[in-house]
Amino acid sequence: MNRWTFLALVAIGCAERADKAHPDPALTDPDKYHVVLDNDRVRVLRYHDEPGEKTHRHHHPAFVLYALRPFSRRLTFPDGTSKERHFDAGDAAFMPAQDHMGENTGTEATDALLFELKQAER
């Protein structure tokens, strides 16, 4: 399988997963989220943005975030509340399923891996 066939299959898989109630970040912000691995147990996303950049509203099932470098961001949730987060390089955090918009509020680029879990959400 060549690279283009693989990317087409990933895009089809993302499109099948996406819906208006749970927008897929790989589709809402393809310039920031890149699928690294996708199988029946986990989907791994590489995330990168620059200071001041924002994402569109999107959904993550329960996931683990691993910071590749330090970053700060604001998450805004559908009810209008927001949370400021800071991660140092090497930090890892479990996050419950959520919809949000993100904004890089720091002075450095964000680089992180997100491990989305594909099990029944509790």
Give a description of the structure.
It is built from 2 helices and 9 strands, in the order ααβββββββββ. It is of the alpha+beta class. It has a single domain (3-117), classed as Jelly Rolls. The protein is globular and about 35 Å long. The N and C termini lie far apart (37 Å). Residues 5-18 have low confidence and may be disordered.
Tags for this model:
122 residues; alpha+beta; Jelly Rolls; four-stranded antiparallel β-sheet; 2 helices; 9 strands
Task: State the gist of this model.
With 122 residues, this protein is an alpha+beta fold.
Show the helix and strand layout.
Layout: H1 3-17, H2 25-28, E1 33-38, E2 42-49, E3 58-60, E4 63-67, E5 71-76, E6 82-87, E7 92-95, E8 98-104, E9 110-117
Antiparallel strand pairs: 1-2, 2-9, 3-8, 4-7, 4-9, 5-6, 5-8
What spatial form do the alpha-carbon principal axes imply?
globular
At the fourth level of CATH, the homologous superfamily is Jelly Rolls
Low-confidence runs of at least 5 consecutive residues: 5-18
Arrangement of strands in the largest sheet? 1-2-9-4-7
How many DSSP H or I helices? 2
The helical percent reads 10-25%
Mean pLDDT: 88
Classify the beta-strand content into a percent band.
35-45%
Q: Number of folding domains?
A: 1
Can you tell me the CATH architecture? Sandwich
Largest sheet: 5 strands, antiparallel
Distance between the termini: 37 Å
Backbone structural class: alpha+beta
- CATH-defined fold name: Jelly Rolls
Give the ordered list of helices and strands.
Answer: HHEEEEEEEEE
For the secondary structure, the number of strands is 9
Highest CATH level, the class = Mainly Beta
Radius of gyration: 14 Å
